[in-house]
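The authors assume throughout that readers already know how a fold can be written as discrete tokens. Each protein is reduced to its one-letter sequence and a matching series of backbone shape codes. I therefore recommend that a typical entry be quoted early in the introduction. For illustration, here is how one protein appears when written out as sequence plus structure tokens:
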Amino acid sequence: MPDAACCPLCGACNYEVMFDLRAVAKALSVPGLVARCRRCPMWFKIITDPARLDHAYGDDYATVDGADQYLAGEAARALFRTALSEIRVTNGAARRLLDIGAGQGVLLEEARSIGYEAEGIDVCEALVRRAQARGLPVACMRAEDLDARERFDVITMTDVIEHVPAPRRLLASAYRALKPGGRLIVYTPNHRGAVVTLGTLLHRIGARFAVREIFGGNHVCFFDDRSLPLALDREGFQVNAVRLFPYDPSRPGGGVSPVSLAVVTAVEWLGRPFNRMFRMLAFATKPA
């Protein structure tokens, strides 16, 4: 793992602290200082209590408010189908798939329904048990420790890379596990979205609630549509596309009040003409 006070993308230890979020606001939050690298576009969290990182993905993680809707609801299934359908069009021969951060295994079900041999891994034991109880091949392990070599045609990471303090190690593991010509799908927030810009502006005038919601949870790396392609490129991937789209109010991902949800939705649509939306889906290839 890189030095906790250095950029996880470029390794530079030249940064500016943007927000002090060392006070844990929620039970599964990871406290720290949110920093902006001065050498590259990366934002990251300097974790002040490393034990909180493991605690964040214990059994309580499986029962957090909104988790079932976010991980297994119809909106989640629709997202998975959209991502997988694009891969099938590009590479119709793809058949073996690994889902990193598989949760209850919903993406595996969608992949299997269209002909993939799909398996998954996840760090949350409670979610792995749920997937296994449904007959799905999901193992409990850290993706960074994956030791597969050129085994998979497709690897998916949805809502994973932002939780990992060493994202390049994660991408390197995926690169090794893919066959030459294999495809990687990464889904993560875009921190150049209009919602993040608004939250930062509010913080400057003393209204800190938005920054706490965006940066104060269990995310430790904050990618955007510049830094994610850069990370993929540095680990040897060829970036095929980065698609941005608005926050989905039917998949809020936690206890979000109706008022906050309405504001976020409105801001997202205002940011759409400027390509400043909060959701990001990247497609990359391991060169043959």
About this structure: The chain has ten helices and eleven strands. The domain at 65-285 is CATH 3.40.50.150 (Rossmann fold). The chain has a mean pLDDT of 89. Residues 29 and 217 are 4 Å apart (CA to CA).
